[in-house]
Amino acid sequence: MRILVLGSGAREHAILLALKREDSDHELFAAPGNAGIAADAAIVAGLDANDPAAVTAFADDESIDLVIIGPEAPLVAGVADTLRERGIPVFGPGKAAAQLEGSKAFAKRIMDAAGVPTGRATRATTRAEVEAALDAYGAPHVVKADGLAAGKGVIVTDDRAAALAHADAYLPSGAVLVEEFLSGPEVSLFFVSDGDTVRALSPAQDFKRAYDGDAGPNTGGMGAYSPLPWLGDRFGSEQAFVAEVTRTVAEPVIRQLDAEGTPFIGLLYAGLILTAQGVKVIEFNARFGDPETQVVLPRLTSPLSRLLMAAASGHLEDEPAPTFADSAAVTVVLASEGYPESPVTGRVITGTDAAASTPGVHLAHAATAAGPDDGTLVATGGRVLNVVATGDTFAEVRERAYTAIERIELAGSHYRRDIAARVAGV
Ligand code: AMP
Ligand code: GLY
Question: Could you tell which of 11, 269, 296, 333 is best to mutate to test the pocket of ligand 2, judged by most ligand atoms within 8 Å of the CB?
């Protein structure tokens, strides 16, 4: 198949690596891509992934069989709508359904209408409304920007002044959401949908805070692991958990969006908290999660292209459920100095070949570009690359991932040392 993947993150690299692994004869294209992706796909120079007309013209001219949209920006820009109008199979929801991620208020309305369990929330447009809501819910306070903020628009704090300051930063550009604090372990569960049928992938957990012990600010994600063996203690088995969330969360949401005339064709990412009162949704995304994708896809044993093509073309019902290896996967994110507040970019990265030659390890690149000299790499953003390790046990994959990441040099960089520590019994 000729497949175009839009995006430039480690998630897109992970998608391309899964496609390449399942069938080395695929012709893979990517835009805008990065230095790591360039080794695994043909980068389409100059193609603006957020330009619906340009992407559609390219896909048409190049007889692309399937377009996979990685990040949220092209979804919100309506790239999927334009491709679909032209009859080109695309994995990713249209602009209207992508509001599930783009607007937290829209997501709350859909959840209410579909009867999906979630925390209470108040949309506030003035400081007085924010203050009233903070007092109504009490501490810990949760305040979110009502729009795309790349995982950084959220504050969870006991400090009322800090919660107010966060609201002040986002109020001028619209509204904020003040939420009830939900307590419990977090799980990310991905569903593939063709707008009607739903198929779950294997659960993962990501580490959102910048530093060890869940200290520091929220980030786009500093690491992840999959599967989550401890789900069995609570739900009997991972399958029982997945079946419950499919029934109580994914299916009702997909039905609701369909009933509203905005079918969701793509990846429904459910961010869940397992509270004492049951599983509740904290957020939806309309795309594969990053860094969770980097640990979920290496465990997929059925072909990814078939699954995504079946969703894109409305035949998911006829497609067998995806299958996963009974293995462990972990990813650790290497971040630039100053991430997430003000990442230092432009610095040289070395040691990636040595890291990638560690047994059971591969790299998924995020913010990398070719450096000035042949074969050199530079960091171009906050989250630079992911070391991904797979193996039989979490102890083994942690050992592999940390051995590999220590081989990489990037001045001032940092990474968390406690990814999957608890599940490995460390
Ligand atoms: P979000 O961007 O909505 O995923 O929020 C980022 C992170 O903030 C989540 O992964 C949680 O760790 C935390 N968070 C968000 N909303 C809540 C909530 N209502 N209660 C507790 N923690 C939350
Ligand atoms: N893992 C968080 C996200 O993809 O938004």
Answer: 269
